[in-house]
Amino acid sequence: MALQALYQLDVRGEEFGPEAVQFLRDSTRDPEVYFFARRLAEGAWAWRREADLLIEEAAEHWRIHRMAPVDRNIIRLATWEMCRADDIPERVAIDQAIEMAKEFSAAEAPGFVNGVLDRVLRLAREQGLVAEEEAADAEEAADGQGDEAAAGTDEGAADAEEAGQGQDGV
Known about the structure:
mainly alpha
């Protein structure tokens, strides 16, 4: 849902903002899912310029505007999650992005998304955009030793619900 809203914002522009909120509301009856998806979409959209700088640096020989819109937004969403969502482990963000690429994009997209996001994570760590503790957790999960941590939870959804009530903009 968050990816779909982010994609529409990217393709249609800011005028889709109010429609994005309604789209997310109409997409689920579960308030936790709604607020979590809204938090993801709003966060990734608001932080897209910063994310795009990291992505362009990481994606050698690719300009952000030349990427397929779905791939660009999958990568933006995962970049925001890795750098700004403390409750989402970096490996989980990357794994979810690969799964979205498999479902919504071309056959070669999962490898492209994985490669770009691995480099984004490396750059984010170098630039101090990912806390060292989070970086260590991601490395542990990547080594297969942190499967429990990599499973993640939606504890942040309740916080997002509280923070998101009364706001109507994506």
